[in-house]
Amino acid sequence: MPRALLVAATLLLSACVPTLQTAVDPARLPAATDYGPHAFPMEWWYVSGFLPEEGLAFHWAQFQVRAANVPVPVMISHLALTDLRTGQVTFLEQSPGLGQAAFPPLKLGQGNWRLEQQGTDFRLNAGPLDLTLHPLKGPVLHPPGYSGSAETGLLYYQGVTRLALSGQVAGRSVQGQAWLDHQWGNQIPGRAALWDWFSVQLRGGDDLMVYRVRTPDGRVVQTVGSIVDARGNARPATNLTVEPGRTWQSAGGRTYTLSWHLRADEFDLTAEAVRDEQELLSRTTNIAYWEGPIRVMGTWGGQPETGQGMLEVVGGLLQPPAKPQ
Fold this sequence. Notes:
Layout: H1 3-15, E1 42-51, E2 56-65, E3 74-83, E4 88-97, E5 100-102, E6 107-110, E7 113-118, E8 121-126, E9 129-135, E10 140-149, E11 153-169, E12 172-185, E13 194-202, E14 207-214, E15 220-228, E16 234-236, E17 241-244, E18 247-249, E19 255-257, E20 259-264, E21 267-273, E22 279-282, E23 287-300, E24 303-317
Antiparallel strand pairs: 1-2, 1-12, 2-3, 3-4, 5-6, 6-7, 7-8, 8-9, 9-11, 10-11, 11-12, 13-14, 13-24, 14-15, 15-16, 17-20, 18-19, 20-21, 21-23, 22-23, 23-24
């Protein structure tokens, strides 16, 4: 491209740079139907699912990162696929680069990986995933509508907790259920915040999200939970406690808690990892984390209950931030 044309294109793009938003206001929450994208420093969309009858679990994530005075956001994609029959974990990443993020309807893409809203459904095509996702419940804002604290930064929190899943995974025909999450705000994972996150789909039709936010030195600054009932209504899990249990140490020496006791006014549950070796080392985000399927059992409303879901435990940065010169 001729230099004059390159300069003109750069100026044009700079003129179109949206104003970077950095203030997350808990008193002014977005609509539950707001799938994004937004002009915040950090935003991501997750689709995850545990398919026990198929012997599979997966976690797909699309990140959008914005910086001041940069004309376009940087997109980063992750995909983790666990074959529970063989024990093989496949972790794929797409390096930071350009992509697509538009709404409405929601259209996300980086390279040939795409999540697109088609009518009431979503289509996910990413590496070995070729899936149709049909919401069984409407979108919700997870009470209190955000995760984090003033110390760690905040992320608005919206999503769909139960979707019927069909299609193919690594060439195998599958059916089951999935979970869609969407968060955006001014919190920078790994540097400002770590977390323990649970998505649980219970046999009786209720869904449970539990989120415990930690500072990099390990202090817990927020513990929240939300219940989405069988009709799709969201409410907070009151008097929630999250007690760590059994731990596992990876080959790299990082310790992850893989057994948990979750208690609140409405439930008393134990969550246990299906398998231990689920550490993911992301070179594109510089974060080490554990992501994998869990089984849940205990009582709900005083009655025996079981469920399944996914657990994510963020261990921290792979490498410390570079020191300024």
